[in-house]
Design goal:
InterPro entries: SET_dom_sf (IPR046341), SETD9 (IPR040415). The structure is a single chain. The protein is α+β, with helices and mostly antiparallel strands. It has a single domain, classed as Beta-clip-like. Helices cover 29% and strands 19% of the residues. The protein has 8 helices and 16 strands. Strands 5, 11, 13, 14 and 15 form a 5-stranded antiparallel beta sheet that branches. The protein has a 4-stranded mixed beta sheet with strand order 7-8-6-12, with no helix packed on it. Strands 3-4-16 form a 3-stranded antiparallel beta sheet. Strand 13 and strand 14 form a beta hairpin. The longest helix is centred in the N-terminal third of the chain and has 27 residues. It is globular, with a radius of gyration of 20 Å.
């Protein structure tokens, strides 16, 4: 499981031998008693391993080479599952923090404030060796205390999306899917280019812990197509969000809830967020492979300056606590410094599984009950997904 196979950055490969060893390990584990008892746990560990490799390689930047890739694989071989989870959280958080700063630059008139914090971030980042992932502790992240600014530029969603592309190199569009079946409907398309391991989209909506399943609309009768479930049982319903806003609208979290149960969340979220559209990603047609994967992301609610760009609110008391590791907060693992805890919001983001450019984003839905698969659903070969093989390459 640890050596999990081929990973791409642009057109470069992280060795075929690692791929072969990883596939052999997965096949061996699939026959073990542990896998037989809890295959979902094994799948989750494989996913975290992949996300560790993808997001760690992405964090090194465009100057990364195969030596760096081999170093990441070696770290993955030695790191515990809990440590890999922690690093994935930090890698994802680093990207989302950059996204939030870019959104501030677009929407907040006081650009000097943002530029000052970017300068501080660059100064801190320059002190890090670009491949020192095993000791990353959040030092490359900008400070958390960016003051809130209420006045925003009156930009439309389309304007915000285009400006984000100018700054990040990509944005997301919703248009008719290229999947050839009658139920494909709208699809999610990347406009621009990203590298392997890029965080591409947020799954928006109301977050339900298992204790509140009975409040989830359409959960028990499977009539709600906007639901997604994390490995830990957290369910997110995107139905109240549906589409992005088209104007300087901040969406009050309580208005996303039809039920009046006190959820304790008065936060507002920015409806013009161009990346809050993960619920439009389609399942690949037969013969195609996913190019994005689900990544659980536990957003620390202490990050007040970022909160408006996280398109989720909790139903009920669904928050959990993270323990501190260095200057960052993680869901699991042993605290190595302070024993303090902070509340978090359990969310989901989509991560690129290869370099992408101007294409539809496809996500493996992993539907469970084969007797109730819809006509359009074709199971993805997990081995092909990990090696990057689809019918067009055979």
């Amino acid at each position: 499981k640890r050596n999990l196979k081929v990973y791409l950055l642009g057109k470069r490969r992280i060795t075929a031998s690692s791929r072969s060893n990883g596939l052999l390990a997965v096949k061996t584990l699939s026959k073990s008693p542990t896998f037989a008892r809890d295959p979902r746990q094994l799948q989750f560990e494989v996913d975290i391993n992949r996300l560790f490799l993808y997001t760690s390689y992405n964090r090194l930047g465009k100057n990364a080479d195969e030596v760096d890739a081999e170093e990441i694989i070696e770290i993955a071989n030695k790191a515990s599952f809990a440590d890999q989870q922690m690093q994935v959280q930090e890698n994802v958080h680093s990207q989302i923090k950059t996204f939030c700063l870019r959104m501030d630059e677009i929407l907040i008139p006081n650009e000097k404030m943002v530029n000052d914090h970017l300068k501080l971030s660059q100064q801190a980042n320059s002190s890090l060796h670009h491949s020192g992932l095993c000791s990353a502790n959040g030092r490359c992240d900008p400070p958390n205390n960016i003051p809130a600014v209420s006045k925003q530029r009156p930009l439309s969603q389309a304007d915000v999306s285009q400006k984000l592309k100018d700054k990040l190199g990509y944005t997301l569009n919703i248009k008719p899917s290229q999947i050839s079946h009658k139920n494909s409907g709208q699809g999610l398309f990347l406009d621009g280019a990203v590298d392997l391991g890029a965080v591409l989209a947020f799954y928006p909506g109301v977050v339900y812990s298992p204790a509140y399943y009975h409040y989830v609309p359409g959960y028990h009768d499977e009539q709600n197509p906007y639901l997604i479930r994390r490995y830990d049982g957290t369910v997110i319903d995107a139905q109240p969000w549906v589409c992005r806003g088209d104007g300087p609208e901040r969406f009050n979290g309580r208005k996303m809830l039809e039920n009046k149960l006190d959820n304790g969340d008065d936060d507002v979220v920015e409806r013009r967020n161009p990346l809050a559209v993960a619920h439009f990603a389609n399942h690949p047609a037969k013969g195609l492979l996913p190019n994005v994967m689900i990544c659980p992301y536990d957003f620390p609610l202490t990050e007040n300056s970022m909160r408006v760009y996280i398109p989720n609110i909790s139903f009920g008391n669904a928050e959990v606590s993270l323990k501190r590791f260095g200057s960052f907060w993680f869901k699991s693992g042993i605290s190595r410094n302070s024993q303090s805890q902070v509340p978090t919001l359990k969310t989901v983001v989509l991560v690129a599984t290869r370099a992408l450019e101007d294409e539809e984003l496809l996500l493996n839905y992993r539907l469970c009950n084969s007797k109730q698969w819809p006509e359009w659903y074709a199971p993805v070969d997990e081995e092909d997904e990990m090696t990057g093989k689809d019918e067009s390459s055979r």
